[in-house]
# Entry
Amino acid sequence: MTGDRLCKRLILALGLLLVASGGPWEIPGSAQEPGQGKKYALLVGVDKYEKGSLLPGLPFPRRDVEELAKVFLQAGYEKDNVVIMTKERGLEDFDLMPTADHIRNQFQLLVGQLKPGDSIIVALAGHGVLMLVPADKPEEKPRAKSFFCPMDANLARKQLPRFIGFDELYKGLADSTATVKLLLVDACRSEFLAQPEGRPGGIEMPAPPPPPASVAALFSCSEKEVSWEDSELDGGHGVFFHYVIQGLTGKADEERGNHNHKVELDELYSYVKDNVLAFVAHKHFTA
# Structure
């Protein structure tokens, strides 16, 4: 792969950041203050899948969401408003086991209490797939649909209720009355499509589905791109979420912003995109 082609592909590897009208959006990062809406986060990390699911395990989704949770809690989010779903959390509280039904339940519990002025950030780390689903009308052909893979997803069986469609999350967020609604997704992974130079878990995926006008979404991959993980990033992280975490702690404003001590979506996008590009190009594609 030539350097020019690599750069063009990696520039797209962060996918889309589609911001609702009325921006710039400030990403909620400060403590609850009188007169301000409440701040919520749903963080899902899936690193283990059932045997025979055709979905290999992944090393760092749990670390990604646990470290992201620390950012929000240290910023003053109320502990009860930050929901972390991993296998380890599920062993302590079964409702937090990241199965499809549990993810839907926790998502609905959060969006059901959102009010104007509130904010919600949903972060997903795990596998993502594209599958054909039945058309809405008998005379129409099946259509391709993008899904996040909860821990009970199984590509061998393809039971659709065990997958979470991105359009399902979009609708729930769009229908809520919250002011800020942000989806962060590192789910562009498939062992079967990884290029030889890609990291374990790297995947080629279709373009991320566009969100509704009132929802912002940041994906780790665009069409036919791969995402990356690295064991040397603060003990091991997906490269995407490593720089999301760094950006949200203030570096996005410091290095790509107006230095007002607030992180806005365009600042986060620019910071994450540029740093992922630089990290991957330097570590994996330089002689």
